[in-house]
Amino acid sequence: MHNISIALMLASLFFSGTTIAASEDYPARAVRVVVPYPPGGGGDFVARVLCKALSDKLGQQFFVDNRAGANGNVGSEIVAKATPNGYTLLVAANTTVTINPSLYRQMPIDMLRDIAPVSIIASQPNVLLVHSSLPAKSARELVAIAQSRPGALDYASAGTGSSSHIAAELFRMVTKINITHVPYKGNGPALADLLGGQIPMMFNNLAPSVSQVKAGRLRALAVTGEKRSSAAPEVPTMAESGYPGALFVLWVGMLAPAGTPADIVARINAEIVAVAKLPEVRERLASEGTEAYTTSPSQMGEILHAETEKWAKVVKAANITPQ
User: Fold this and answer.
1) Are residues 47 and 107 in the same domain?
2) Pairwise pLDDT comparison (12 vs 244), residue with the higher score
3) Sequence-ordered list of residues with C-beta below 8 angstroms from that of 305, at least 6 positions apart, any chain
4) Which residues share a beta bridge with 88?
5) What are phi and psi of 52, to 5 degrees?
6) Does residue 224 share a domain with residue 299?
7) What are the pLDDT digits (tens) for 223-257?
8) How far is residue 164 CA from its own chain's centroid?
9) What is the average per-residue pLDDT within 82-91?
């Protein structure tokens, strides 16, 4: 019995030692970072900035593998089913991880069970935009116009269940206005019709909107973040406009397959936190209206649970039909 106890103790020390060594040696080879969207979007941009910084710092390549489909579900499933060893990771937006479970009747994975949080990487607010032909100069004035003409104002979105749709529905619920959803196939066509005056308003990602606002083609009434954006400091927040309940922050984060050793997750988290502090990384992100923002794995986990619950209520209240 005594010999068995010693053997178990030695085995425990051996495996503990190999775990520590695995963490210290990580990464020993290239790391695949799955981005569940096409190249060129906001999530892809953040992933590429992060991967370059991690590659430079750690001496191993972190490479982006774009696996688009089903609003991010395809790429997420690939990572969830990958070997949980730290060499296949996911960079996805909160819309994919926390809203999709309410938008799809049949999810290929359980987002809270099958992929593990590592860290949020960066955040960006949406912005409420109106065409210059609409006389509203503030969110309050827009609400007053909508109240005086129930159902008459249309708003564009990138599609049913997109971040632009969810942000608008949250705003509609908070302000109790009656506006009509017009879904498009992507932000590009929606923004084109907004610029052309075919539709009067929409919520959009901040980055592609700033140049249009500065050129005077569109008017920005409010950003949906917790604070004003350095990319558009003159635009007030929803809270400053009187609608704190319309807070909607788009963030991009890194996740790993569930079961990835905690020490590997902690190592990746520490490296993300370190590179996110680099001036060149912060400046590159800021150039697209995005702000570096990191968390611990447990903090990200709490945010995932809270947002999943919040958006489930919004989807249900807005009567958005699951796909």
Assistant:
1) yes
2) 244
3) 112
4) 32
5) -65, -45
6) no
7) 999 899 888 899 999 999 999 999 998 999 999 99
8) 12
9) 98
Please report the DSSP string for 153-197 in residue order: -EEEESSTTSHHHHHHHHHHHHHT---EEEE-SSHHHHHHHHHHT
AA letter at 304: L
At residue 158 the predicted structure's pLDDT band, cuts being 50, 70 and 90, is: confident
pLDDT tens per residue, range 36-80 = 988 877 889 999 999 999 999 999 999 999 998 888 999 999 999
Contacts of 181 (CB under 8 A, 6+ apart): 154, 155, 157, 160, 165, 168, 169
d(CA 274, CA 150): 50
* Residues shown for the chain: 323
Structure token digits, residue 155: 């708003």
| 135 phi and psi angles, rounded to 5 deg | -75, 0
Cβ atoms of 111 and 303 closer than 8 Å: no
**C-alpha distance from residue 95 to each of 3, 98, 260, 290, 304 (Å):** 54, 6, 23, 16, 10
Q: How far apart are CA 114 and CA 79, in angstroms?
A: 9
What six digits make up the tokens of 66?
């774009």
Owning domain of residue 230: 125-246
Q: How far apart are CA 220 and CA 201, in angstroms?
A: 10
- Beta strand 218-223 with 115-131 is antiparallel
What whole-number distance in Å separates Cα of residue 52 and Cα of residue 46? 10
**In a shared domain, residues 152 and 188:** yes
CA–CA separation, 299 vs 296, rounded Å? Answer: 5
CA distance 283 to 178: 40
Q: How many CA atoms lie within 13 A of 155 on its CB side?
A: 28
CATH number for the domain spanning 92: value is 3.40.190.150
**Three-state secondary structure along 36-55?**
CCCCCCHHHHHHHHHHHHHH
Least Cα distance to 142 among 222, 262, 252, 27 occurs for: 222
* Token code pair at residue 33: 């970072």
DSSP 8-class letter at 321: P
